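ligand=pantoate
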Amino acid sequence: MQEHSDLMRSLGKTIAFVPTMGFLHEGHLSLIRKGRELGDNLVVSIFVNPAQFSPGEDFESYPRNLDRDFDLAEKSGVDVIFTPDEKELYPRNFQTYVELEKLPNHLCGISRPTFFKGVATVVAKLFNTVKPHVAVFGEKDYQQLIIIRRMVRDLNFEINIVGVPTLREPDGLAMSSRNTYLTSEQRIDALCIYKALKKAQELLKNGINDAANIINAASELIKSHMGTTIDYITICDPETLVDMETIDSPALMALAVKIGKTRLIDNMMLNPE
Ligand code: PAF
């Protein structure tokens, strides 16, 4: 991979990179399309990163289908599919990790305390291997996106990080590889996540700017669906992720909800007029 990237760079080609954990869906394909626009040479990595799963999470059962991924990637104009081996990325005695001090202490980092350490570490390793000029991430994983932006600034990676808006199913459910875990009934319940975000936007439009009120309404809406468990619903500063009490400037509303055993996340901006 490094030799290929060195060659591309020596030819003056720009390398665009889309890191993924595979099981590609339309959401990934929108990142790939963006990558295609941004670079001469487009690299997609497929690696289910064990370092970002805690014991008891879905590392083993995470959906995988390399043949289908290769097919989709090829049809989408990807030049290189990079599928590193676990032992290559984490050789015996591996002991160096990338950890951020503040951004992981919010949202998903609370219930998944080692998740962003695993993400930042693997992304740093992939950056050093793929050597891209530009890398593309989805806004659905908002916290991941701003953590990568912070890491790139803090550690002087010469890489432009581009975010792509969340792609949704026609009814509004954010696309995610984990949607495949849902039964048909759960798929209907899962829509409450999108509805809660839309409700928040509507309340704000009607003049309610108290974050606690909005969170309460969203929470009631979700709880009215059997089989849902709220991990968190937060309205926070989009840069620091610190909770906001009053929405008097653009705020991020983010939430994680378990539908049965499947944990789904989503977010939207709340923009006061
Ligand atoms: O967003 C993902 O799929 C993963 O967290 C990433 C960025 C590929 C790192 O493993």
